[in-house]
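Input (structure):
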C-alpha cells in the first residue's frame, strides 16, 4: 500500500503524468482494485493515446473481467497506434494477445 500512496503523492504534483498513472493502475491490479485500474488506463488512453503500454494492460484487465468485445477493441486500437509509432515489440505483444483471445 505504501507504493500506492507514494504514487498518489507524485500525481498530486503532476496529475497528467501518464507514467505515474500507469504505474498506479498496475499497483491497483496487484491489490485487486480492477475498477480503479480500469479508470486510470482509460483516462491515460483518452488523454495520451500514444502511451502504448496501457492498451495491453487495459485489454488484459477487460479480458479477465469478461468484457471480451471491449478488450478486442482496445487491442485493435493499440495495434494501430503501435504500428504508427513503429513500436515492433508492443505491436507483437498486442497482436499475440489478440490472437490468443480469438482462439479461445
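Output (sequence):
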Amino acid at each position: 500500500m505504501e507504493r500506492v500512496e507514494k504514487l498518489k503523492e507524485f500525481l498530486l504534483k503532476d496529475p497528467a503524468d501518464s507514467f505515474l498513472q500507469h504505474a498506479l493502475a498496475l499497483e491497483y491490479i496487484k491489490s485487486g482494485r480492477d475498477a480503479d485500474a480500469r479508470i486510470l488506463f482509460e483516462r491515460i488512453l483518452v488523454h495520451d493515446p500514444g502511451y502504448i503500454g496501457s492498451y495491453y494492460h487495459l485489454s488484459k484487465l477487460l479480458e479477465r473481467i469478461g468484457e471480451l468485445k471491449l478488450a478486442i477493441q482496445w487491442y485493435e486500437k493499440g495495434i494501430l497506434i503501435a504500428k504508427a509509432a513503429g513500436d515492433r515489440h508492443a505491436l507483437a505483444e498486442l497482436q499475440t494477445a489478440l490472437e490468443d483471445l480469438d482462439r479461445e
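Notes: The CA atoms of residues 83 and 91 lie 6 Å apart. The two ends are 35 Å apart (CA to CA).
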